[in-house]
Amino acid sequence: MGFPEYRPRRLRRNEKLRGMIREHELSVHHLVYPLFIKEGSEERVAIPSMPGICQFSIDAALSEIEELCGLSIPAVLLFGIPNEKDEVGSGAYDESGVIQKAIRAIKGRFGSEMLIIADLCLCEYTSHGHCGAIKDNEVDNDETLKLLARAAVAQSRAGADMIAPSDMMDGRVRAIRHALDREGFPHIPIMSYAAKYASGLYGPFRDAAESAPQFGDRRGYQMDPPNQREALREMELDVEEGADIIMVKPSLFYLDILALARERINRPLAAYSVSGEYSMVQAAAAQGWIDYRRVVMEMTTGIKRAGADIIITYFAKDIARWTKEPTP
Fold first, then answer.
1. Which of 16, 85, 107, 196 is catalytic?
2. Where are the domains positioned within the chain?
3. Confidence (pTM)
4. β-strand partners of 193
5. 196 assigned to active site
6. Cis bond leading into 326, ω under 30°?
7. What is the distance between the alpha carbons of residues 274 and 196, in angstroms, rounded to a whole number?
8. Helix H or strand E encompassing 149
9. 326 confidence band (pLDDT: 50, 70, 90)
């Protein structure tokens, strides 16, 4: 049946018609908001490369989370910034580390009202800025697994609801799963950064997390951007090792990877809309080159359409407000 019998425009004439047949909808219930928790007394520290995003003290983070609860945002992803760093990132697994203290404070105030996802990596805690222990000027994979397992247990003891390893060490999901089960946390799920690419979009995040490597780069353990089949292997390995949720990072330049994961991986799928994506949109909007609200919603809908069940995004607060309002 062709034109004029079938006219697709018939169902696009007004918002009610468009809404009735809309295939994908953004919901606040699928959003996760990243939070940077900095040890110390200063309440909020603005991040120049990420307009509107701050580092928070623990007290200030509690106020921020109160706002998030008011917007019905269900979860936060926590990153810690300690006052002191060392070669082995001991602040990540110290029971009195900044993230462990933050988790206890958030749970004490909000209980089950806010889901706490603890990012698990050593890069914010190491003096060299890499994601693990260094041996012969390289990250020692297997030694790092031991430290990650300790950190996962410390985060869970503090009250984290989910552990999200972002380091890209081989075998880390199995090591973390075994440690959690052994220490009495078999109920804690793992959301694995399974396909984390060595992207040029992480620069603003490294400002926010104070985690830039002091030598070399992370291409020896993060994925090479041209590779698609390798991403599928990484995701399958993490599922075999016990990951409950699989993540693709970044999102915008890797929608094909999200779609591949949706087709091939039988696990809930998360996507991280990273700092560079956020900052590019903010910069273009500040110049008046794009319609900020329209582009954010279009971009995030594209991530959802590609297959993401969970979207980690710095736009979460704006999206939450907009989804409560009529479409302009």
1. 196
2. 24-323
3. 0.94
4. 247
5. yes
6. no
7. 11
8. helix 141-158
9. low
